[in-house]
């Protein structure tokens, strides 16, 4: 019922699109109910076509009503040709071309019905190039002409560039133009269209005149047989006006060839559950064609398959749907691939930009590296030159140091020689000091003796003064004593002079020793300067510092001030003791 509903919808769609729904919707619905043998529902009809805003003024408004109240109630007990003719009548006047055609209006009607059968199940209805080719081939074969594939390929290419397919009216114009039936008269084209119409629309699998044996009279009568998917009808003539009977076919039927008998040839037998029919074909070829056609029909009934042309149409649709699905899948995959490719291109572009950036960075880094390398080479060259200069300077310094070392070693040898000479000079100075000490001790001894003599002279002088104060007698006595003391004094003076001479000699010896000491000191000082000049490698041992010498009337004293103070205290002590 689903396939039947789709076929009905296509014809109704043509009628629906050609009418003004506000004025003719009721007429279309009423006519559909009449030709489809569907009970009228005036209430629903008036409800859907009332004059307000909720009325079915569009496809969305009328189609739900059509499906619910008309098509859902169709039982199949109607005349398809009458139904299609009613829809054709409503739409042909508005859409059929006014230009003259090589086909009649009846042929145009049949082409229109064939279009509805072969068109795609989507709206607006079109017939695709594959179905156009199929229909034109069928018509060409029915005319007995040869198929011009190259001509159709050119037409198909021109068609595909502009649209997906043809409408019903464009298909009628194409067939009526005679583009693919050149050389054929109108009657031949009309017969071909009628044959294709019978096969595709009326499900006529085969038709023709044959002889049939009667069941009662057993006589043979010529009848026009029409084979359909589940029935064989036979008529008095091919105008189909006087129907004589039907042979109901099912899966239990069979067809068998019979031998010639009773003067009848090309016999075959159709066995059904309740009856058996003997038929005679005009020749063996017709006999074989009819047997094969009937057997094929029975096999299809057993398998529950549709008629060959419907099955072929379904297969073509499935193939187109499959190809379309594959094409859509391919397009989807192509889009995915394109998207992936675009993503890849973007990624590649990103990678390329990254690579370019990396290359730029690498080039910059390489440039910096080369610049750094050049700078390092320059610096290295400078460092190398500097190192060479430093090395040369170091070599010069080493040579200089070697020379200085030689000089230093020479100076060390000279200093060692000077040290030996200094030791000798120190020995001489030590000897001179020893001699000075000896002379000093001699001077001290002489000074002590001189001091004793002076003390004695002072004692004598005091005694003289005491004697002067004595009496005259004593004075004379003292004068005598004085004279004696003067004599003694003269002797002491002579001794003092002698001591003075000895002191002068000691002083001269002291001066000589002093000169020797000064000479030794000068030698020591010169050696000190030399040693200091030669980096102070040797530290001289010098005699200790001496207290300043006292100066007397006769020259430098042979004793110190402390020693003189000690002697004065000794003299005072002795004087106090003597008093």
TrEMBL record:
<keyword id="KW-0966">Cell projection</keyword>
<dbReference type="Pfam" id="PF25530">
    <property type="entry name" value="EF-hand_SWAP70_N"/>
</dbReference>
<dbReference type="GO" id="GO:0030027">
    <property type="term" value="C:lamellipodium"/>
</dbReference>
<keyword id="KW-1003">Cell membrane</keyword>
<keyword id="KW-0175">Coiled coil</keyword>
<keyword id="KW-0238">DNA-binding</keyword>
<comment type="function">
    <text>Phosphatidylinositol 3,4,5-trisphosphate-dependent guanine nucleotide exchange factor (GEF) which, independently of RAS, transduces signals from tyrosine kinase receptors to RAC. It also mediates signaling of membrane ruffling. Regulates the actin cytoskeleton as an effector or adapter protein in response to agonist stimulated phosphatidylinositol (3,4)-bisphosphate production and cell protrusion.</text>
</comment>
<dbReference type="GO" id="GO:0003677">
    <property type="term" value="F:DNA binding"/>
</dbReference>
<dbReference type="InterPro" id="IPR011993">
    <property type="entry name" value="PH-like_dom_sf"/>
</dbReference>
<feature type="coiled-coil region">
    <location>
        <begin position="309"/>
        <end position="530"/>
    </location>
</feature>
<dbReference type="InterPro" id="IPR057837">
    <property type="entry name" value="PH_SWAP70"/>
</dbReference>
<dbReference type="InterPro" id="IPR057836">
    <property type="entry name" value="EF-hand_SWAP70_N"/>
</dbReference>
<keyword id="KW-0539">Nucleus</keyword>
<dbReference type="InterPro" id="IPR001849">
    <property type="entry name" value="PH_domain"/>
</dbReference>
<comment type="subunit">
    <text>The SWAP complex consists of NPM1, NCL, PARP1 and SWAP70.</text>
</comment>
<feature type="domain" description="PH">
    <location>
        <begin position="203"/>
        <end position="299"/>
    </location>
</feature>
<dbReference type="GO" id="GO:0005634">
    <property type="term" value="C:nucleus"/>
</dbReference>
<protein>
    <recommendedName>
        <fullName>Switch-associated protein 70</fullName>
    </recommendedName>
</protein>
<keyword id="KW-0597">Phosphoprotein</keyword>
<dbReference type="Pfam" id="PF00169">
    <property type="entry name" value="PH"/>
</dbReference>
<dbReference type="GO" id="GO:0005886">
    <property type="term" value="C:plasma membrane"/>
</dbReference>
<keyword id="KW-0963">Cytoplasm</keyword>
<dbReference type="GO" id="GO:0005737">
    <property type="term" value="C:cytoplasm"/>
</dbReference>
<keyword id="KW-0472">Membrane</keyword>
């Amino acid at each position: 019922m689903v396939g039947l509903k789709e076929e009905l919808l296509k014809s109704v769609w043509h009628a629906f699109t050609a009418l003004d729904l506000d004025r003719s919707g009721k007429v279309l619905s009423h006519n559909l109910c009449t030709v489809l043998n569907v009970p009228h529902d005036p209430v629903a009809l008036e409800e859907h076509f009332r004059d307000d805003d909720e009325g079915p003024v569009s496809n969305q408004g009328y189609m739900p009503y059509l499906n619910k109240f008309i098509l859902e109630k169709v039982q199949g007990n109607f005349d398809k040709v009458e139904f299609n003719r009613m829809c054709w009548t409503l739409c042909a006047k508005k859409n059929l071309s006014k230009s003259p055609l090589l086909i009649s209006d009846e042929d145009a009607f049949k082409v229109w019905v064939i279009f509805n059968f072969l068109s795609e199940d989507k709206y607006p209805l079109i017939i695709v190039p594959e179905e156009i080719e199929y229909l034109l081939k069928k018509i060409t074969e029915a005319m007995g002409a040869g198929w011009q594939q190259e001509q159709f390929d050119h037409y198909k290419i021109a068609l595909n560039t502009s649209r997906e397919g043809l409408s019903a009216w464009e298909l009628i114009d194409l067939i009526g133009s005679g583009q693919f039936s050149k050389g054929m008269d109108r009657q031949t084209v009309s017969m071909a269209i009628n044959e294709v119409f019978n096969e595709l629309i009326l499900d006529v699998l085969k038709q023709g005149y044959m002889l049939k044996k009667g069941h009662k009279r057993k006589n043979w009568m010529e009848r026009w047989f029409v084979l359909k998917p589940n029935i064989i009808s036979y008529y008095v003539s091919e105008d189909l006006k006087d129907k004589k009977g039907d042979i109901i076919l099912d899966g239990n039927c069979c067809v068998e060839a019979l031998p010639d008998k009773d003067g009848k040839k090309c016999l075959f037998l159709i066995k059904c559950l309740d009856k058996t029919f003997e038929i005679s074909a005009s020749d063996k070829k017709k006999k074989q064609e009819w047997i094969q056609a009937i057997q094929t029909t029975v096999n299809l009934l057993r398998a529950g398959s549709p008629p060959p042309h419907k099955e072929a149409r379904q297969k073509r649709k499935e193939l187109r749907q499959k190809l379309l699905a594959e094409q859509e899948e391919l397009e989807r995959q192509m889009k995915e691939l394109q998207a992936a490719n675009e993503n890849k291109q973007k990624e590649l572009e990103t990678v390329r930009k990254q690579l370019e950036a990396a290359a730029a960075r690498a080039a910059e880094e390489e440039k910096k590296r080369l610049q750094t390398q050049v700078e390092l080479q320059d610096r290295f060259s400078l460092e190398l030159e500097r190192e060479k200069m430093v090395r040369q300077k170091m070599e010069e310094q080493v040579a200089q140091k070697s020379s200085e070392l030689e000089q230093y070693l020479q100076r060390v040898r000279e200093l060692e020689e000077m040290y030996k000479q200094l030791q000798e000079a120190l020995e001489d100075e030590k000897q001179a000091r020893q001699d000075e000490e000896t002379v000093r001790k001699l001077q001290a001894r002489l000074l002590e003796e001189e001091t004793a003599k002076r003390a004695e002279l002072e004692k004598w002088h005091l005694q003289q003064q005491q004697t002067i104060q004595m009496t005259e007698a004593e004075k004379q006595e003292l004068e005598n004593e004085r004279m004696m003391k003067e004599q003694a004094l003269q002797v002491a003076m002579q001794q003092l002079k002698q001591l003075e001479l000895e002191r002068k000699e000691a002083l001269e010896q002291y001066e000589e020793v002093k000169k020797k000491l000064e000479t030794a000191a000068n030698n020591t000082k010169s050696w000190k300067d030399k040693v200091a000049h030669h980096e102070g490698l040797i530290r001289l041992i010098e005699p200790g510092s001496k207290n300043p010498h006292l100066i007397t009337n006769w020259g430098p004293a042979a004793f110190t001030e402390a020693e003189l103070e000690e002697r004065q205290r000794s003299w005072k002590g002795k004087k106090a003791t003597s008093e």
